[in-house]
């Protein structure tokens, strides 16, 4: 397996998760190193000193008893008072022969080593109740010395203190780091939501506030500047097109009035048709250039919108089969999206006898498809079909070739909403136009 791919799959996907992993990894490494140093140095040293001190006390008691056998009781009382050792002699007892005493842990090994160095007599260790007491039996010349040692003489409480402090401080540091990283990641999430909303054509309720780390503030400032430039360009374009629309429509209106005053003959009717065609072409050009950029997004029932478009085409005598999967509520620019679907249905009805209009949710997206049973568009010409003023029908007749702006306007509207428009083969034999919008 590729190590890089394994590491990439192991890492959390979110920035917060990766940041916490960056913090936790050194923290765990620090705790491991600390624990190693503690057990290798502190635990080893302290335990050895405790066991060595105990072995020395036992050896000292044995020497005193050897020098003063009659004062054994007094010596044992002094040892119990000053050394916390409970001693007793069992005359005539002999420790059972054993090949090697079973060791129960690290302390047993150190205690045995200390007894070998200090006592130098056969012994037996019972540490089954280590934390409460340890029993050591030492073989003397004519008796067995039984020593009951309290666990406090061999067990250092610093072990528990160290573990508790290590875990406690780690949890506190992790909690502080989590709160800190959440505060740092929150502005990034807000910025991501603002960018996503702006990319889908939804105007944010308010300008993104500059907060968080310096780099996040710089990214937010760049986003605000970019958004303002785009808004300004849209306003300038809209204002310019309004002026162009007024300047072009004014002479056309005068021409229509003048034509209305002429007698009704073939020449005047032809001129009237040319003026109407020119008005339609100008309206199409302006609609394409305007792109419905000034319309605000709002929460819309897309199901009702699609059904309404289908009903209007049915009323116009077009054979259209409409099916919507459930109720679809989303944020769109309703007039722009209606124009988008309307253009696709118009193209489908122009070249096919029947139109199939479908809408539904597909995963994390909304899909609207328009199918027809017409001749379709060759695969190598589908990209060109989206170009402005491009017409598969090379004639200049708008009734057969249109103005060449329908698909361009629909693509522009789909991308304004953060989605896309693609052309595919239809299962009905013609062309399928698929609109895909993010939820």
UniProtKB/TrEMBL annotation:
<protein>
    <recommendedName>
        <fullName>histidine kinase</fullName>
        <ecNumber>2.7.13.3</ecNumber>
    </recommendedName>
</protein>
<keyword id="KW-0597">Phosphoprotein</keyword>
<keyword id="KW-0812">Transmembrane</keyword>
<dbReference type="GO" id="GO:0005524">
    <property type="term" value="F:ATP binding"/>
</dbReference>
<keyword id="KW-0067">ATP-binding</keyword>
<dbReference type="InterPro" id="IPR050980">
    <property type="entry name" value="2C_sensor_his_kinase"/>
</dbReference>
<feature type="domain" description="HAMP">
    <location>
        <begin position="182"/>
        <end position="235"/>
    </location>
</feature>
<keyword id="KW-0472">Membrane</keyword>
<dbReference type="InterPro" id="IPR003594">
    <property type="entry name" value="HATPase_dom"/>
</dbReference>
<dbReference type="InterPro" id="IPR036097">
    <property type="entry name" value="HisK_dim/P_sf"/>
</dbReference>
<dbReference type="InterPro" id="IPR003660">
    <property type="entry name" value="HAMP_dom"/>
</dbReference>
<feature type="transmembrane region" description="Helical">
    <location>
        <begin position="160"/>
        <end position="181"/>
    </location>
</feature>
<feature type="transmembrane region" description="Helical">
    <location>
        <begin position="20"/>
        <end position="39"/>
    </location>
</feature>
<dbReference type="InterPro" id="IPR003661">
    <property type="entry name" value="HisK_dim/P_dom"/>
</dbReference>
<dbReference type="GO" id="GO:0000155">
    <property type="term" value="F:phosphorelay sensor kinase activity"/>
</dbReference>
<keyword id="KW-1003">Cell membrane</keyword>
<keyword id="KW-0418">Kinase</keyword>
<dbReference type="Pfam" id="PF00672">
    <property type="entry name" value="HAMP"/>
</dbReference>
<dbReference type="InterPro" id="IPR005467">
    <property type="entry name" value="His_kinase_dom"/>
</dbReference>
<dbReference type="GO" id="GO:0005886">
    <property type="term" value="C:plasma membrane"/>
</dbReference>
<keyword id="KW-0547">Nucleotide-binding</keyword>
<dbReference type="InterPro" id="IPR004358">
    <property type="entry name" value="Sig_transdc_His_kin-like_C"/>
</dbReference>
<dbReference type="InterPro" id="IPR036890">
    <property type="entry name" value="HATPase_C_sf"/>
</dbReference>
<keyword id="KW-1133">Transmembrane helix</keyword>
<dbReference type="Pfam" id="PF00512">
    <property type="entry name" value="HisKA"/>
</dbReference>
<feature type="domain" description="Histidine kinase">
    <location>
        <begin position="243"/>
        <end position="439"/>
    </location>
</feature>
<dbReference type="Pfam" id="PF02518">
    <property type="entry name" value="HATPase_c"/>
</dbReference>
<keyword id="KW-0902">Two-component regulatory system</keyword>
<keyword id="KW-0997">Cell inner membrane</keyword>
<keyword id="KW-0808">Transferase</keyword>
């Amino acid at each position: 397996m590729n190590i890089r791919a394994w590491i990439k799959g192991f890492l959390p996907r979110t920035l917060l998760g990766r940041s916490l992993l960056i913090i936790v990894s050194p923290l765990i490494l620090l705790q491991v190193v600390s624990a190693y140093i503690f057990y290798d140095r502190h635990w080893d040293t302290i335990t050895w000193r405790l066991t060595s001190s105990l072995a020395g006390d036992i050896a000292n008691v044995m020497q005193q008893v050897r020098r003063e056998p009659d004062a054994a009781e007094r010596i044992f009382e002094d040892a119990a008072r000053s050394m916390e050792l409970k001693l007793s002699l069992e005359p005539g007892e002999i420790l059972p022969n054993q090949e090697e005493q079973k060791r129960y842990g690290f302390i047993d090994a150190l205690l045995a080593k200390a007894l070998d160095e200090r006592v130098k007599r056969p012994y037996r260790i019972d540490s089954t109740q280590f934390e409460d007491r340890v029993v050591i039996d030492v073989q003397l010349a004519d008796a067995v010395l039984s020593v009951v040692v309290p666990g406090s003489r061999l067990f250092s409480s610093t072990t528990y203190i160290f573990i508790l402090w290590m875990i406690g401080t780690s949890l506190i540091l992790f909690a502080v780091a989590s709160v800190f990283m959440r505060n740092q990641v929150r502005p990034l999430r807000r910025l991501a939501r603002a960018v996503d909303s702006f990319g889908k054509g939804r105007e944010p309720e308010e300008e993104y506030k500059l907060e968080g780390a310096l780099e996040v503030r710089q990214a937010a400032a760049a986003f605000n500047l970019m958004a303002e430039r785009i808004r300004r360009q849209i306003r300038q374009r809209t204002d310019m097109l309004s002026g162009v629309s007024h300047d072009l429509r004014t002479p056309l209106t005068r021409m229509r009035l003048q034509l209305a005053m002429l007698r009704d003959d073939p020449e005047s009717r032809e001129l009237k048709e040319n003026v109407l065609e020119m008005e339609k072409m100008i309206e199409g050009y302006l609609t394409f250039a305007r792109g419905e950029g000034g319309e605000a997004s709002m929460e819309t029932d897309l199901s009702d919108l699609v059904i309404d478009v289908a009903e209007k085409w049915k009323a116009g005598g077009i054979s259209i089969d409409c099916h919507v999967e459930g109720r679809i509520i989303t944020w769109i620019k309703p007039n722009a999206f209606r124009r988008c679907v309307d253009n696709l249905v118009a193209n489908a009805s122009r070249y096919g006898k029947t139109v199939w209009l479908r809408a539904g949710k597909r995963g994390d997206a909304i899909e609207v498809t328009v199918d027809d049973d017409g001749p379709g568009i060759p695969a190598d010409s589908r990209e060109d079909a989206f170009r402005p003023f491009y017409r598969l029908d090379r004639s200049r007749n708008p009734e057969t070739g249109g103005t060449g702006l329908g698909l361009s306007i629909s693509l522009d509207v789909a991308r304004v909403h953060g989605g896309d428009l693609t052309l595919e083969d239809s299962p009905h034999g013609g062309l399928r136009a698929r609109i895909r919008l993010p939820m």
